[in-house]
Amino acid sequence: MRSFTSVLLLAIAITSVLGHPADLQAERDRLSSVSSQHVERERLVQRSTSRKYSPADSNPYADWPSYSQLPLDSSYPTKAGWGVWGADDVDGALNHITNATILSARSEIQLGETFNLNLPLEEPSIPINPSRKPLQHLFQPESGYTDDVVVMNTQISTQYDSLRHFPYSTNTSIDTYRWYNDLIPSYEDVIGPAPTTVLGIQQAADKAIVARGVLLDFEGWAATQNLTHDMLHTNYSITSSQLDSVAAWEGMPSDWAKPGDILFIRTGWLAQFLALDAYDQNILPYSKEAPSGGMLASAETLEWMWEKKIAMVAADNPAFESTPFSQTIDGVPRSLHQVFIGGWGMSILEFIDMEKLAPALHSLGRSSFFVTVCPMNIVSGIASPPNAIAII
Ligand SMILES: *[C@@H]1O[C@H](CO)[C@@H](O)[C@H](O)[C@H]1NC(C)=O
Ligand SMILES: *[C@@H]1O[C@H](CO)[C@@H](O)[C@H](O)[C@H]1NC(C)=O
Ligand SMILES: *[C@@H]1O[C@H](CO)[C@@H](O)[C@H](O)[C@H]1NC(C)=O
Ligand SMILES: *[C@@H]1O[C@H](CO)[C@@H](O)[C@H](O)[C@H]1NC(C)=O
């Protein structure tokens, strides 16, 4: 049976590795040696022992800090949620998901209709960030059966950003990197020859994430407003007050959010991209500095998200927020990536395909659904396809 299994080699987001066969072999050796240590993983993966806010408490949010109370210690970075779930916590915003929130999400399954929220891994066919190499998919014929080998940068298509992907940094220099709960002392622990495992994507895989998803269809609402929003060529930035209007347009009450929700925003980036023919898709301004639309990185956005106790955010665009990152928060250059991932331990899903789910929800007058997310179980992994499924 095992011979029939696809072999997936995921080069973590070290794009230079992909260009050098010798390094790639070293990376393969490292990955296979890591996987042979699989049995030791439970020992290696750190788990929270002292949650300050236990989901089992009768009112787990009795002492929940407001956004204005962040960070809990002035030595922590901008609006970090460090210590909120305990000093050793590794799960961050996923702590909002409890047995009770999962049982409550069951009521979202009404028709038994399922939706794949993942793009084909080879889309977009040219990686939006040109320092990332396209997917390599090889077939390996064997006697009487076929294997395949996939080598990919995990950031090129639909993806789950783990808590190792994005540290705080003030000037993008590794001297200033700081990860969630200050659990990773140095960059060497992330990309060095013997990486530590804490905050790796295996934690999210082990969590086996199940939640209520809520879809805010900005693209659908914008069409009713005749709102010009070129998400492919400009840094059009969606505000939290626009999201309130979207929720109202969808017929939701103002207090629609429940702790543990996963928030999906259909910005329109993917719809606009898919509407182009292949030629026009391939001549987008592909550059690290090229603008793309998304959420506005601002204090208002952060407060709006924090107070909703969201477990994870997702969108149909390259970076959830608009790019290039150019905003300051509390006077410091900060992106939503830094505060969500490095500050709150909140992962981000990108390039999520809601193009079938959104019209199905609209036709039913619904905004919410049951959702499962299971990234690949890669020890010390940075990102992965999220293998996200919606059920309505
Ligand atoms: C969920 O239920 C299991 C089995 O009853 C229990 O072991 C676990 O502690 C519960 N988790 C939470 C977060 O309540
Ligand atoms: C970034 O900031 C740190 C801390 O202030 C400083 O040590 C470092 O030299 C800076 N790096 C660059 C490239 O500016
Ligand atoms: C949008 O444009 C249509 C067609 O021009 C017009 O009928 C409608 O009133 C406009 N809607 C808004 C909200 O401006
Ligand atoms: C969008 O880009 C313009 C022009 O570069 C810049 O002035 C503006 O601050 C950017 N807005 C956001 C929200 O990034």
From TrEMBL:
One of its GO terms (biological process) is L-tryptophan catabolic process to kynurenine. It comes from the Eukaryota. Gene3D superfamilies: Putative cyclase. GO terms for molecular function: arylformamidase activity. Residues 30-58 are annotated as: Disordered. Residues 1-19 form the signal peptide. Keywords: Signal. SUPFAM superfamilies: Putative cyclase. Belongs to the Cyclase 1 superfamily. This is Uu.00g065680.m01.CDS01. It comes from Anthostomella pinea. The lineage of its organism: Eukaryota, Fungi, Dikarya, Ascomycota, Pezizomycotina.
